[in-house]
Amino acid sequence: MDFNPNKAIYLQIVDHICENILLGKLPIDSKLPSVRELAIEIAVNPNTVMRTYDFLQQQGIISNKRGVGFFVTPDSFSQIKKYKKEIFVKEDLPQVFKNIYLLDISLEELKERYDAFINENYKSN
């Protein structure tokens, strides 16, 4: 895993795990690698992985079955979307709004571009 120096490593691992859940690579009720296994796999300190798992558990994305390991929760999709939406609205959207204002992009143009993007990337033909 390549890490971005501008973001905490444990949060980058959180993003990676969330993406794998949303993509179905980690299905509901699937077991995550142990703390030690994941630490070795991505070459980080086990404490960093434990911090990642603690964070994901606090968000309701994974749960710990004592003595067995960490598992993806049935509610993980909605919890991930809730978590990601909060970050987007607080951190990313203000910058987007600033650029829209500075570049004098109308709401009509923005809607047209958004609709075109959805049609090109997410609607099946």
TrEMBL record:
Pfam families: GntR (PF00392). Keywords: DNA-binding, Transcription, Transcription regulation. SMART domains: HTH_GNTR. Residues 7-75 form the HTH gntR-type domain. InterPro entries: Tscrpt_reg_HTH_GntR, WH-like_DNA-bd_sf, WH_DNA-bd_sf. This is GntR family transcriptional regulator. It comes from Sphingobacterium litopenaei.
